[in-house]
Amino acid sequence: MTKNRAPKIAGFGEIAESLRRSTVMIHAGPKGNGSGVIWSSDGVIITNAHVLRRERVRVQLWDTRELEAMLVASDPVRDLAALRVDAKNLPAATAADSSRVRPGELAIAIGNPLGFVGALTTGVVHAVGPLPRLGPQTWVQAGVHLAPGNSGGPLADAAGRVIGINTMAAGPLAFAIPSNAVVDFLAGANAKGGTSDSWLGVTLYPVQVPKSGPRGAKTFGLVVLDVERGSPAALASLLPGDILLGTEEKSFSLLEDLSRALRGTGLRTLRLEFLRGDYAHVRRVTVRLGAQSLGNGVAA
For residue 76, which of 39, 50, 37 has the smallest C-alpha distance? Predict the structure, then answer.
């Protein structure tokens, strides 16, 4: 079978078309577009947190309608976000139980790469489990081709049921957040009453950082790839290239450690340790969470 050619499965055309109708384009601003999945018919859309640059965006449905969407929940560490649009009877996708996904199963990805609306690519699931240096989180790893604009779109099985949210690619493999993690994310957001105020406003990638001491010794860090304008991170003067090491109380060893440190409600501060420019001098900054209008943090 030619690479990325749709497999000959009875009803595959209908399955693919249904999945396309459940996929939206997210107009994310000057840095490009992303994708999203209609998770419920009453207007909940799931995407990646890194796709969004502001709390209000416009989404384009399969029938070319454009609607304003509002951010209602976000977990920047797990890279998930929930949007809501004012619409009913939308063609919602069906979520599969991602714990039952096995290597060798067919995988279908739908998205809007490079501006091509509803582009489809197929492959097979290679593995389901953690990735080196990304902590214990489970990823659905599939041999499907992703390009900029696919982020936030669905990875589905042969029946068109969503098994994951496409998030990133490394060579020929795509990595998707399992659908069960999306269910847990939404359950947590509902329990908190909607929008979380644990937003930092950064895009991160885990790295191993050389440290002083025995030759070859390294420590875990989160390199800042992007800082959203007006975010708590921006107001605290954090910059792309900074490497977050932890809080004053505890070093980070997993992506989830930052998520835990950010948790809370109301106005509060978080003291972060980070590196900038070299690995010799650890800096500290106070980040103010729960509101964006309190002014800048102070880095030391």
Answer: 50
- List the one residue out of 71, 100, 97 whose CA is nearest residue 84: 71
Q: Three-class SS of residue 139?
A: strand
Domain ranges of the chain: 1-195, 202-289
Closest CA to 241 of 233, 251, 249, 250: 233
Q: Which CATH architecture group holds 1-195?
A: Beta Barrel (2.40)
pLDDT band at residue 299 using 50, 70 and 90 as cut-offs = very low
Catalytic: which of 75, 79, 157, 257?
A: 79
Q: Which listed residue (35, 50, 74, 98) is catalytic?
A: 50
32: tokens are: 């490009």
pLDDT in tens, 196-211: 556 787 877 788 888 7
Single-letter amino acid code for the residue at 245:
L
C-alpha distances out from residue 228 to 54, 135, 168, 200, 242, Å: 8, 24, 19, 9, 14
Q: Is 257 part of the annotated catalytic residue set?
A: no
Is 50 in the active site? yes
pLDDT value at 221 more than 60? yes
List 220's β-bridge partners, or say none.
208
Q: Is 196 considered catalytic here?
A: no
Please pick, among 22, 35, 74, 151, the residue that the annotation labels catalytic. Answer: 151
d(CA 53, CA 225): 14
Tell me which residue has tokens 């990304």.
Answer: 134
The single-letter DSSP state of residue 198 is -
Task: Report whether 62 contacts 118 (CB < 8 A).
Answer: yes
Domain spanning 202-289: CATH superfamily: PDZ domain (2.30.42.10)
What is this structure's pTM? 0.68
- Model confidence at 213, pLDDT cuts 50, 70, 90, reads low
Q: Could you tell me which of 101, 109, 181 has the C-alpha nearest to residue 145?
A: 109
CB atoms within 10 A of CB 213: 9
Task: Choose among 202, 162, 172, 176: nearest CA to 74.
Answer: 202
